[in-house]
Design brief:
Length: 168
């Protein structure tokens, strides 16, 4: 922003006016900003190493998610992947095509229903998935160094609790 550094931009409130707040928002105990910020910063750092690896191939986080889940469940269908990622077919189409064209994933017609598309990692896809997971795994191991098995179970319960309930 050019000009006077003391001038702050702010959005108008509902009544069309505006009010500048110079004190930090605390939430008055209703909002757990410490955990929210911890999650922001942990996620930022957790994905930083894979992001750097993916950038070399012109890939992004969507590619990472697809490679991860196809490697974790070889033979999953496109429909299963769409359900896992909670994205549209259109969103997945470009990413999946790039991974197939680049030789990281193979798409095979289903044995019973030829319209069904099963996804499998190739050797290169398996190697990419491991290269992306290794720095994340090291980061997780480092975080657990001072913790015990009960702490680990508590973290897993916390992460599971943060997820939307599965609807089946």
């Amino acid at each position: 922003m050019k000009g006077n550094d003391n001038v702050a931009r702010h959005m108008p409130d509902r009544n069309g006016g505006s009010e500048l707040h110079e004190d930090a928002m605390t939430g008055d105990g209703r909002i757990d900003f410490e955990i929210i910020e911890g999650l922001f910063f942990a996620y930022r750092d957790f994905i930083s190493d894979p992001d750097a690896i993916l950038e070399k191939s012109g890939f992004g986080r969507a590619h990472h998610r697809v490679v991860h889940f196809v490697n974790r469940e070889p033979g999953m269908t496109v429909a299963d992947l769409l359900d896992t990622l909670k994205i549209t077919k259109q969103s997945l189409a470009r990413v999946l095509k790039e991974l197939i064209d680049s030789g990281y994933i193979q798409q095979v017609a289903g044995p019973e229903d030829r319209r069904q598309r099963k996804l499998y990692p190739t050797k290169a896809g398996r190697e990419l998935a491991l290269a992306l997971a290794e720095p994340q795994s090291r980061r997780i191991a480092r975080a657990f160094e001072e913790m015990n098995a009960n702490d680990r179970r508590a973290v897993i319960r916390f992460l599971t609790g943060m997820q939307n309930a599965k609807t089946e």
